[in-house]
TrEMBL record, chain A:
It holds the Pfam family BPD_transp_1. One of its GO terms (molecular function) is transmembrane transporter activity. It comes from Mesorhizobium temperatum. The chain crosses the membrane at residues 20-47, 59-80, 191-210. This is Amino acid ABC transporter permease. The lineage of its organism: Bacteria, Pseudomonadati, Pseudomonadota, Alphaproteobacteria, Hyphomicrobiales.
TrEMBL record, chain B:
Keywords: Cell membrane, Membrane, Transmembrane, Transmembrane helix, Transport. One of its GO terms (cellular component) is ATP-binding cassette (ABC) transporter complex. It is found in: Cell inner membrane; Cell membrane. GO terms for biological process: amino acid transport. This is Glutamine ABC transporter permease.
Length: 221, 216
């Protein structure tokens, strides 16, 4: 024991943590945006497709969900460039990985959301003469989004935490900033206390804001 | 290429054994700690409930990776020296314990209040109520999500590679460092993790169906 807390060095390098936090949020926001597109397209395709397509989509979902994220991050950043001739930065590589990762979780979320849309709503859409495309766009998707909003917020919050894995390929997000200060100043306990507080405050503030949004959409209908 | 990978297989198998060993330790330790703390959360006096709630919400609010680094680098700084293996097991156990607490709370909370009241009415003590009335029923709701959650321990264990522990993930990276066969080895690794975790999630789904009769 006999450890004296001294936060001075943490504050001196605080821009590493602050910039890291902003980058973590940015990575999570971009990844979930792309993940939502992947998830929506595949979920809509899944519910109307034949067996082969369903199997292929299920294979993608199960593969991503059952492999550690860190392995996927390595695979895309170190593995893929050895077989295909493309070059990308660590950050782009991580966004691609996290998008594919969140896409797999969101296919499941949207798929069960689509199935939870009451049959009567679709029949009503048919009765007033909407085309299948209009029924999807104006009836099924809006209802499904309202149903899946809580699951979407939860996915976003866990993605925010998952951005910490980007540190293993040196993307300077919050966890990377923490390690930098850890190795350069040795104020180890202090830096992880501050970083823990930053993850918690941001996470719970986001949770609170997202719950407000959810309540608004529920109250409106 | 295949020859090199075949040559590396025993080394990878050792890494895989470490992955399984870490996961097993974490799963068992977190089950014990989580059930005890979960009971504290549901039935304990207010200060205990608060303590468990804060513990669980804090652990679940931060990335596992931060937890691992905090334990691994932080404990020696305050004079507690753990081997890196045990630091990793401790960090992952803390993370899993928070999950187990929530599974237990959910499972026990789903048992109708009347069950507890009836048990009280026939004069069972608190321990008897838990052992003969609440737990046998809650067990069926606890088991499927818990087994599914074991996959989180297996996946989380890949992060211990960052502490230099030669688990499957680290073994793969080391073989790649020598052979430069990145893609085949990462795919091999992914397949191994997939097989283990997919089997667990299938078992979880099957149990859920098996126990679906209690959803009356």
């Amino acid at each position: 024991m006999g450890y004296t807390l001294n936060f001075n060095l943490i504050w001196r390098h605080f821009e590493k943590l602050w910039g890291g936090l902003l980058l973590s949020l940015e990575l999570a926001v971009i990844s979930i945006a792309i993940g939502i597109v992947i998830g929506l397209l595949l979920a809509v395709w899944y519910v109307s497709a034949g067996r082969l397509v369903r199997t292929a989509i299920a294979a993608y979902v199960e593969f991503i969900r059952n492999v550690p994220l860190i392995l996927l991050v390595y695979l895309v950043f170190y593995g893929l460039p050895t077989v295909v001739d493309i070059a990308y930065s660590a950050q782009t590589s991580f966004i691609a990985t996290l998008s594919l990762y969140s896409g797999a979780y969101l296919v499941e979320v949207f798929r069960s959301g689509l199935e939870a849309v009451p049959r009567g709503q679709l029949d009503a859409g048919k009765a007033i003469g909407l085309t299948p495309w209009q029924r999807l766009l104006h009836v099924r998707l809006p209802t499904m989004l309202r149903i899946t909003l809580p699951a979407l917020s939860n996915t976003f919050l866990s993605l925010f935490k998952d951005t910490s894995v980007a540190s293993v390929i040196s993307v300077p997000e919050l966890t990377y900033g923490a390690q930098w200060i850890n190795f350069n100043t040795f104020r180890i306990v202090e830096v992880y206390l501050v970083v823990t507080a930053m993850y918690l405050l941001t996470g719970y503030a986001l949770l609170y804001a997202l719950r407000l949004v959810e309540r608004r959409f529920r109250a409106a209908h | 290429m295949l020859g090199q990978i075949a040559y590396a297989l025993p080394f990878l198998a050792q890494g895989f054994a470490v992955t399984l060993w870490v996961s097993l330790l974490v799963v068992v330790l977190s089950l014990i700690a989580g059930v005890m703390m979960g009971v504290g959360l549901v039935y304990g006096p207010a200060p205990l409930r608060w303590a468990v709630r804060i513990f669980s919400d804090t652990i679940r609010g931060i990335p596992i990776l931060v937890l691992i680094f905090f334990v691994y680098y932080g404990l020696p700084a305050v004079g507690i020296h753990l081997e890196s293996f045990w630091a990793a097991v401790l960090a992952l156990t803390l993370f899993k314990t928070a999950q187990v607490i929530e599974y237990l709370r959910g499972a026990v909370g789903s048992i109708p209040k009347g069950q507890s009241e009836a048990a009280m009415a026939i004069g069972l003590t608190f321990r008897q109520r838990l052992a003969y009335v609440i737990f046998p029923q809650a067990f069926r709701r606890f088991l499927p999500p818990w087994i599914n959650g074991v996959t989180d321990a297996v996946k989380g264990s890949a992060l211990v590679s960052l502490l230099g522990i030669t688990d499957l993930m680290h073994a793969i990276n080391q073989v790649i460092g020598r052979t430069y066969e990145a893609m085949p080895l990462y795919i091999l690794g992914a397949v191994i993790y997939f097989v283990v975790n997919y089997a667990l999630s299938l078992a979880s789904r099957r149990l859920e169906r098996r126990f679906s009769f209690i959803r009356e």
